[in-house]
Design brief:
single chain, 306 residues, alpha/beta, UDP-N-acetylmuramoyl-L-alanine:D-glutamate ligase, four-stranded mixed sheet
Length: 306
Amino acid sequence: MKFDVVGVGAAAYDYLCIIDNYPQEDGSANILEIHNQGGGCVATALVATQRLGFSTAYIGNTGDNFGGQYIRDDFVREGVDISLVEVIEGRHSTEGYVLIDPVRSTRTKFPYSNNLPGISWTKEKEDMIRNARILHIDGTNYANCLHAAQIARQAGVPVSLDGCARKKDTRLNANLAMLADILIMNEEFPYYASGKDDLEEAMRFFAGDENKIVISTLGARGSVALINGQLVSFPAYKVEAIDTTGAGDVFHGAFVAGWLRGYELPQCIRYASAVAAMKCRQIGGRAGIPKHDEGLDFMKEHAEDL
């Protein structure tokens, strides 16, 4: 089986609750709406890449609870291959409770983490990675992602890492980051994973002497990338954001899609920024993900934002 992108990492079921305000401790708030969607760093990135025109597959375990079933069903609805996903009896997949304050455009997450065992690696699973055009991981389960990255590197398959998972042993964060050919980190990851207190120094630390892509996303402030040894800033597209849940995950999936299309680095970043911005116009991490042509139209319409 050959896929453009194979993913190993977080998959979740999200309860997205729209509230009238965020309460103080011991206070209360009214839930105005509840939305249910699939979530998880790698899972949502795969859905984005699939919608943008590429074949994707997920390798991992899910629980036999309702959330696990929803995760699998949602992958199938989106066209993400789950032929090698295992259902673990008596275990539960991650479920996230997300409180969204639309007035302040904030989201507060309460994840109920899974109790799944590590992936039981088989030749079939490893071959799926070896035959991929790119592997995308997030580091949430370090052992799973490390093994997948090592298989990919041995086979010459590029590795994309969502730098977001914070391990207590910071060496683990750095070790995984060093295996990545495409390293896109959230705003905090460069500092705690590198031990540096300067963003440019941290990004140079990860880039080393290799020809690798190193980017840090900054939310509404856009992103910065190390290009030809220099930090280059990219502004975010201006939209009326309803919910930023999953925006970073979608950025990763869209960046991989742009990279697979052969876009140059700046174009990949702008494309990913556009797709992530479009997602923020709807509730949840997936409902607002556009198709490829919709993303291009948005970029033309919002060219003045850049």
